[in-house]
Amino acid sequence: MPSLLDVRRTAAALVAVAMSTALIAFSFIVSNSFRTQVQTGARLSVGDASVVVQRARSSHASGGDLDDALLNQVSGFDGVASVRGVHWDVLHLDLPKQLRNTANISVSAQDVPALSQFTTLSSGRLPTATGEVAISTELAEQRGLSVGDTIRLTTDDADEKADAPHSAPTVVGIVSPGPDTELAGIGTVYATTDQLQAMGANTTYYQLYVTAMPGTDTDALTAKVEQTVHAAQPHALVQDRETVISQRSQNQQGGTMLAGILNVLAPVCAMVAIIVIATTFSTLVARQTRTIGLMRCIGTSRSQVMLAVLRTGLITGLLGSVLGTAAGSGIAAAVISSGRFADLKANQLTISPASLALTIALGTLVTLIAVLRPARKATRISPLVALTGQVASVKQTGRARRWAAAAGVVVAGAGAAVIALGIQASDLYITAGGSAIVVLGATLGLPLLVTVTIGLIGRVSSGTRLPVLHLATRNLARNSGRSAAAAATLFVCVLVGSGLFVGLSSLNASFESILGHSSPVDARIFGVTPQSDTARLTARVKAVDGVKDVTYVPSLDLTQTVDGQTEETTVDVIDIDAIDPIVRTTSGLEDLDDGTLIVGGIYRIPDGSKVTLTGAAGSIELTARVREGWGGVITPAAAQRINGDAPTDTTMWVRSTGSTMTPATEHALHAAVRGQELMVSGSASGVEVMSAQIMKVALIVCLVLGAALVIALSGLVNITDVSVLERVREIGVLRATGSSRQEIHRLIVTEGVLVAAVGGGLGLLVGTALGVSETLAMAKSAEGMTVHIPSLALIGMFAATLAVGLAASVRPAGRAASVPPVRALSEE
């Protein structure tokens, strides 16, 4: 039996399938390319090694070292082509005592790297002798070092051992490390083995890379190497190549965030596509009522009718999926090959046949699911009704609408309760689950919502004042099922978009406040001692462009005792009135008094516990209050009782002129204190990274929602076109009774824009409410988070929705206006 509906009549469904599968294919390719990027880096780090040996992590592990004797022993195994030993250790910047508790003082010490297309020299040369080192670009930027400078280094036990090595090698080169070189995510010093030893680094091997000869059994070689290595160092880790690559790949994140967002938003397009496909086939089945009835009269069974509709759905889904997959693959290839998308390179483009096959299968399956309901409707067409020439009505009965609306109210109410629970518990996942339930309830009740809204607009617009609008509302209310289906696509698009935009806008607008609570000081300059010329330092820092004011905060090295456990600690001495003009917020210091110690969660001191602090002048017992953003804090009066008049180190707190510290100002601060025993720590890099991430996410959201609106546009065009074809006789009556072409054109356009306005407006209201709820759920965990409604973005989205309704109705409106009255009146 042939298909009932040809592909030409299912163009809207074809476009919907193609665009949704294009986005799915794009998401798969981006995810696969990111995975390739990570795996490529992991493979480069392993090189051509077949087996990798890593020394025991514990410094107290028993056994010998990975040394030259072990390397030579492994090199002599049958099937081993070569063994490469790698040195690696952690050193510390040799800083004055007052700077040893600051951040970013650890560096990794490694062998001189082999330059490649990935690891390159930014300036200078590689070290070749004792007294020379090269440093990574990250370390050069952190410390403001360049070729010709010296870098002072020591071991991590310098405070405990008087004879700990101190070195000051000359920087002869700056290396930009690639994945084939980099072993740690911190600044790196590269040196010869002799220089590593001079700096106090461990010169036994950190790793051995064993390269096998072609044809060697890797499993057997791994077992033999493991047996030999464990005889010398039982706790060493011996793994084959693929295991190491897999582990290193898992430790790298790459662009998983962007890929994750695409994977989350792709189902939105699929949902819109399902609505468009179902509506398209429902409408076309209704138009084929007489044909189906005739087929039933000549003996066609219900199952054959269903198979005929499903066959058309299968053809449409398969063809649309193939076209969409090809388009998505082409777009992904072009974007990634350009080298401007999320740091992906052209050689990392990965198009997996399995992913493409899965995309085609998903698109076809989505189409078949969407066609099931129209197919079932087709099987219920009575031959007697069809033979009378009547057209099957797709209008829902009032009772069905009421039941659907009642179910929607119950479901949405349950979702609202879950949302309230999530906000109360500050749990984003609970709130997201409640939001999904609310969306389901709103979708169930959407037909009645659309009918009621259109009815209200019809009552407001009287037949005399706004006759075209009044007639448009009557036409839409008369076929509320189709109107609701048309509005549903835009409802989903706008709901998701407005919710995401409210969340992103709230995060963007609150970021400075969140940063102020988590890091209320724009920049800190550590290392100010009682001997420092603070007047000169203040003048130099205030002269930096972008600096508003500074203050000095004393810092005490004390001994704390909690529940009988004693350890060293450092606390700041804060006078709230003195720091108020400098900090972004004093939130968290409300409990600070002479009997209180403010601490962060990292101190692992329970809130309300008693803490004894001991200093040069004596001891004091304070009550701990856990408040994030400040570290350890006491009042000047408490400090006087603990430390007396003993001189103390201080930290300069810097306030910038802008809303946040800019990278330019932070770099200028580094330059201002260069050459002195001071260290700058600012928030500019964090602000820059977060702003860039928010912009990337917003761009992806806009692109995906744009694709969803195009899918909705194709569906609206088809629905409006079919609506015009079904009302040819009615349009002819209007033309015959004096209505002009312009009035007919305006009527159809008004209907299209009105459907878009209702669907978009309802989506805007629900989406904004859900976005606000998600923001409120985050407010407790992200202190400083406030709700921000992006009015311009939401208005722009609503305007885009109206534009979709207008664009969808222009061609059908022109067709309606061009129908001659005589031909229209002759239509049966």
Outline the structure in words.
The structure is a single chain. The chain has 828 residues and is an alpha+beta fold. The protein folds into four domains: 186 residues, no CATH class; 202 residues, no CATH class; 218 residues, no CATH class; 163 residues, no CATH class. Helix content is 55%, strand content 15%. Strands 13, 14, 15, 16, 17, 18, 19, 20 and 21 form a nine-stranded mixed sheet that branches. Helix 1 packs across helix 6. About 1% of the residues have low confidence.
Q: Structurally, how many domains make up the residues?
A: 4
Proportion of strand residues: 5-15%
- E-strand count: 21
Number of helices: 25
Sheet with the most strands, sense and barrel status: 9 strands, mixed
Question: Could you name the key traits of this structure?
Answer:
globular; 828 residues; eight-stranded mixed sheet; nine-stranded mixed sheet; 15% strand; 21 strands; alpha+beta; 55% helix
Could you write a compact summary of the structure shown?
By secondary structure, the chain is α+β, with helices and mostly antiparallel strands.
Please specify the SSE layout and strand pairing.
Elements: H1 11-46, E1 51-54, H2 68-75, E2 80-86, E3 88-93, E4 106-111, E5 120-124, E6 132-136, H3 137-143, E7 153-154, E8 166-167, E9 170-176, E10 188-191, H4 193-198, E11 207-212, H5 218-232, E12 237-240, H6 241-250, H7 256-287, H8 289-297, H9 302-337, H10 353-379, H11 383-387, H12 398-425, H13 428-444, H14 446-460, H15 467-478, H16 480-518, E13 523-528, H17 534-542, E14 547-562, E15 565-573, H18 576-579, E16 596-599, E17 610-615, E18 618-626, E19 633-634, H19 636-643, E20 649-656, H20 663-673, E21 679-682, H21 684-726, H22 728-736, H23 741-779, H24 791-817, H25 821-826
Parallel strand pairs: 4-10, 6-9, 15-19, 16-18
Antiparallel strand pairs: 1-11, 1-12, 2-11, 3-4, 3-7, 5-9, 6-10, 7-8, 13-20, 13-21, 14-15, 14-17, 14-20, 17-18
